[in-house]
Amino acid sequence: MLRFTTLTADSSAMTALVSIPARGMAPFPGLVVMPHRGGIDRFTIDRLDRLADLGIASVAPDIYHRQPVATPTTQGKDQLRDDEIESDIAAVLEFIAADGRFDKARLGILGHCQGGRTALIGLVSRPEAFCAGVIYYGGSIFKRMGGPGPAPFNRMSVIKCPIAGFFGNDDSNPSPDDVSRFDAELRRLKIPHEFHRYDGAGHAFQDFTDHHRSREPQGEQAWAATVTFLKRELGLDAAAT
Known about the structure:
Blueprint: E1 2-9, E2 12-19, E3 28-34, H1 42-53, E4 57-61, H2 73-76, H3 82-97, E5 102-112, H4 114-125, E6 132-136, E7 163-168, H5 176-188, E8 193-198, H6 216-233
Parallel strand pairs: 3-4, 3-5, 5-6, 6-7, 7-8
Antiparallel strand pairs: 1-2, 2-4
């Protein structure tokens, strides 16, 4: 079941898409789904539908809500600020905390593209909230967006949960060297993680709406690995999947 709701982040109304499994009994394990550059589009809706089929409830916030409606996402993504993203995630967590359909003890965060970067912001700003993180080709983690302060990469010591990462070896942001640096820092910090890298794939390789960059075999392999990771880390009942 998909429905839109309105949350409040920094006194600003923020639309969010909520997905609740049609089968099974609440409370369900949950995911905060951070949208990619396209926002809450066909790809984001497809991910929420897939998660619901697994027995996972999810919420995807419209992180562009502070911008004029007509702003192209190619411009809007560059206007996002890390502190505002933190507020958006906090608003989603407040909604989840008050909704009895979510199991707050089994909550993760997932994102693709810029959503991979903002999922990392969630992990470093609200580490106590999450028991799993899934990052798909999230770039620009070594710099802060909007105002002074540390980059997400430099805040990772607080992370308290395992991470699964998925990357294309033909990507330039993050590049293979960026991914290796990310991997090395998680190892140094002793944060459990698994990174999956795919030859013949670049950025957005799982996005079926982008016909130039989509790579179906690698995308489906990555999703299968994501499902395995989520089943394990969110304690999904095999009967529900």
